[in-house]
Design brief:
Length: 390
């Protein structure tokens, strides 16, 4: 064992008691971290030196090894990138339910190597048809919706997005694509340490819902390494696998979604679910230092990244050094400017006029760049004026 590895092993035995913080070890080049939550130590007993991964035929990157493995298996069985992406997303829904789920939305950018074109799918859901400003005012809500309000729930678009992605861009059937995740949910999976910690943080909230028995083990979160099974999620996936979008947006699943939301005071109806559709949108893009970068257009928030990249393009980062104070300052300020614009302008383009092309123009970026000080931060950027207002 080298001196360097020996030192890391010693550092691996150090114990820190903190609450919801991350403490780096003393090894300057180590990415090893010790995570603690709720005053309980979650100790990662190894140092992580991440290096690039290379592959000849295909590669899958996700936050969970089991999900990445499923994506690779789909590629090896003849699936393409679209098939593998949906299979991986479904597997993440099983193994990391604290982070992602079929009850949310999805977006897809698909590059066709034959035609050298990028196509986009917007799988986000809309607010219930009966959720009007008048209705919100009647509930006493003013300004921003509380994060846990039932009225923040939109029609879940992920299920339709998965089916449409596989149908439009894939080479397998949705039944073939979802089969590995169904098996994973039925047979069970070992819970990862970070997932166990996140699960523990959500116990109180889970107990307030009607499905606590499925999501908890004897009233508690699963521990790291425990085998967790999610049979109801497997049944939901199988319904989509067997019946496509109709299996999710009509029938008993749709009825259960609406029943729960309405029991909490929400106004979503089965008609809202039945009428949901993904949209196939032409991606928007900018060229950053010779590289074309694509995003889904609004209502998606990806335009934020494009605005920020345009602002940053004229800076020479090679002279600043990676992750130096100067480097990070410019990135942070550019993102603050971009978010100031997206928070003001980005909405449903079928309802309001979003000045997309003006927001991602080089001319507009040049104006916004002048607002950045190289010496000071600005915590309160205002939105810009991408087009004349009269």
């Amino acid at each position: 064992m080298s001196k360097r590895n020996s030192k890391n092993m010693k550092l691996g035995k150090m114990r820190y008691k903190i609450n919801q913080k991350v403490i780096p070890t003393r090894e300057p080049n180590s990415t090893h971290r010790i995570y603690c939550t709720n005053n309980k130590l979650l100790h990662m007993k190894f140092s992580s030196y991440r290096s690039p991964v290379y592959a000849k035929h295909g590669i899958v990157a996700s936050s969970q090894p089991l999900a990445s493995e499923i994506g690779l298996r789909v590629l090896q069985s003849g699936g393409n990138a679209a098939d593998a992406a949906v299979a991986t997303a479904a597997a993440l829904n099983v193994t990391e339910p604290c982070s992602t789920g079929i009850g949310g939305d999805c977006f897809c950018l698909f590059f066709n190597n034959s035609t050298k074109t990028v196509k986009g799918l917007n799988g986000s859901g809309r607010a219930p048809g009966k959720l009007t400003l008048t209705k919100l005012a009647e509930t006493g809500i003013k300004g921003t919706l509380p994060p846990l309000s039932v009225h923040t729930i939109t029609v879940p678009g992920a299920a339709a997005g998965w089916v449409d992605t596989v149908t439009k861009f894939g080479s397998l059937t949705i039944k073939e694509v979802l089969a590995p995740a169904i098996a994973l949910a039925e047979e069970g999976f070992p819970v990862a340490p970070l997932t166990a910690a996140a699960w523990q943080r959500g116990v109180k909230q889970l107990k307030q819902g009607p499905n606590a028995d499925e999501m908890l083990i004897n009233g508690r979160a699963p521990k790291a390494g425990e085998i967790m099974k999610l049979p109801n999620l497997a049944r939901t996936f199988r319904e989509v696998a067997d019946n496509g979008k109709q299996g999710f947006y009509e029938g008993y699943i749709a009825e259960a979604i609406v029943k729960l939301i309405q029991s909490l005071g929400g106004v979503m109806t089965e008609e809202d679910l039945k009428n949901h559709q993904s949209t196939f949108d032409e991606p928007i893009s900018v060229n950053y230092k010779g590289i074309d970068v694509f995003e889904i257009p609004p209502n998606g928030q990806g335009i934020t990244a494009l605005i920020a990249l345009n602002i940053l393009e004229e800076y020479d980062f090679s002279k600043l050094g990676h992750s130096t104070v100067e480097h990070l300052h410019l990135m942070i300020e550019a993102l603050r400017l971009a978010f100031a614009d997206t928070q003001w302008y980005v909405a449903d383009p079928t309802v309001v006029d979003v000045p997309i092309q003006e927001l991602i123009s080089k001319e507009y970026a040049s104006k916004r760049r002048k607002e950045i000080s190289l010496k000071h931060t600005n915590l309160s950027y205002s939105r810009g004026i991408p087009r004349s207002e009269s």
